[in-house]
């Protein structure tokens, strides 16, 4: 059975600004975030929050604060407008960065930015099974944090500010938090494995891929989203990149300081960026479900992940190659997604009017 440990949405909780550097602090002080980023759940109701402004990870020991709402999730139409009203701003000043479902309470947690650009304020929210939006008092939550070494410098004038991609996605598996993002090094695309409880963060492994749509090797493009998945009894990370190669990395190769070449098992089409992915089981088979900016939601059988030869030739004209997939036509406007249970997922879906809705849907 596939397993993906990330965060969820169900009661909006937590206004956040997280502090940088220190490895631990008392709950009374409360953590401080400088920028919103990805989320991931770990064991014992721990929520990992990435702060890309400070290039650090904060581990919130939620305890009772993570399960105090009504269990489960409920559809919340116009959730961006409800968040805006809660935070005293306009809907166009709200950005939902990530969604994660608490595996214990099945509540959904959201990483949100209030405002746009360098002056935005990070906010962490929770939605419960009654559809209640609530702020979580960070001053009551014990936490630890760890800084990422060799983080990229901030360059707001760049087309994509490298610092904003210090952490692009996270997932917890086998007592380690896996972190994708960029570094300041020459081979800047990174995959890091950080043991939890935190002690130190290594420089991570620099990762390289063959990008068939571009017809070249690449070391500077970050992994935008990934899931841990066992292939032939070996733990791998299945990673999605811009324009849209799908690549597998055996976890055993991701050693600190290593330069690792991934195996490109699919080219899913150019002019697109993957947003989020989960792995689930249905009718005795495993599938990867991936949301995208411009190519809909893709359902990808994992059965050929082991046998698919790595792509080595260019794939031009927006064509696809490698492992097969289907586009789920009824799933439109899907941005963030996470598993709710064995049969359902929670999504942020944007409709034709630009309204963002929180919905619990059946897995396709």
Helicity, as a percent range: under 10%
| Approximate shape | globular
Number of E-type strands: 27
Global Rg? 19 Å
Which band does the percent of strand residues land in? 35-45%
User: Regarding quaternary structure, how should these chains be classified?
Assistant: single chain
Q: Total number of helical segments? A: 1
Helix-and-strand structural type: mainly beta
Distance between the termini: 17 Å
Largest β sheet strand count, sense and barrel closure: 6 strands, mixed
Order of helices and strands: EEEEHEEEEEEEEEEEEEEEEEEEEEEE
Question: What report would you give on this structure?
Answer:
With 364 residues, the protein is mainly beta. It has 2 domains: 170 residues, no CATH class; 174 residues, no CATH class. The chain is built from 1 helix and 27 strands. Strands 10, 11, 12, 13, 14 and 18 form a 6-stranded mixed β-sheet that branches. It is globular. The N terminus is likely disordered.
Give a short synopsis of this structure.
This protein has one helix spanning 79-87, and strands at 24-25, 39-41, 46-51, 56-61, 94-101, 108-114, 121-127, 133-135, 143-147, 169-173, 176-182, 189-195, 205-211, 216-218, 225-231, 234-240, 245-250, 259-261, 263-267, 274-282, 285-292, 297-301, 321-322, 326-327, 334-339, 344-350, 356-362. With 364 residues, it is mainly β. The strands form 6 sheets. Strands 10, 11, 12, 13, 14 and 18 form a 6-stranded mixed sheet that branches. Strands 1-9-4-3-2 form a 5-stranded antiparallel sheet, with no helix packed on it.
């Amino acid at each position: 059975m596939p397993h993906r440990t990330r965060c969820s949405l169900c009661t909006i909780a937590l206004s956040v600004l997280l502090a940088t550097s220190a490895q631990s602090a008392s709950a009374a002080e409360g953590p401080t975030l400088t920028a919103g980023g990805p989320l991931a759940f770990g064991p014992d109701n721990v929520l990992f929050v990435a702060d890309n402004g400070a290039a650090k990870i904060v581990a919130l020991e939620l305890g009772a604060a993570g399960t105090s709402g009504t269990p489960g999730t409920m559809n919340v139409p116009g959730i961006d407008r409800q968040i805006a009203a809660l935070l005293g701003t306009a809907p166009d000043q709200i950005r939902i960065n990530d969604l994660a479902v608490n595996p214990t309470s099945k509540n959904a947690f959201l990483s949100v930015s209030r405002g746009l650009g360098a002056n935005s304020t990070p906010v962490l929210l929770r939605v419960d099974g009654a559809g209640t939006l609530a702020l979580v008092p960070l001053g009551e939550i014990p936490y630890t944090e760890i800084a990422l070494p060799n983080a990229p410098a901030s360059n707001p004038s760049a087309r994509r500010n490298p610092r904003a991609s210090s952490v692009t996605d996270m997932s917890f598996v086998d007592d380690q938090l896996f972190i994708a993002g960029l570094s300041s090094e020459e081979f800047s695309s990174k995959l890091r494995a950080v043991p939890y409880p935190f002690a130190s963060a290594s420089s991570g492994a620099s990762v390289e891929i063959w990008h068939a749509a571009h017809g070249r090797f690449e070391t500077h493009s970050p992994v935008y989203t990934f899931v841990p998945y066992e292939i032939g009894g070996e733990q791998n990370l299945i990673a999605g990149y811009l324009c849209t190669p799908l690549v597998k990395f055996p976890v055993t190769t991701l050693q600190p300081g290593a330069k690792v070449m991934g195996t490109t098992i699919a080219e899913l089409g150019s002019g697109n960026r993957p947003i989020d992915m989960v792995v689930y089981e249905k009718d005795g088979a495993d599938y990867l479900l991936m949301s995208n900016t411009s190519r809909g939601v893709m359902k990808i059988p994992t059965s050929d992940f082991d046998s698919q030869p790595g792509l080595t030739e260019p794939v031009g004209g927006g064509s696809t190659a490698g492992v097969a997939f289907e586009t789920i036509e009824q799933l439109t406007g899907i941005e963030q997604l996470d598993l709710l249970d064995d049969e359902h997922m929670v999504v942020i879906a944007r409709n034709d009017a630009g309204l963002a809705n929180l919905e619990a849907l059946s897995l396709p």
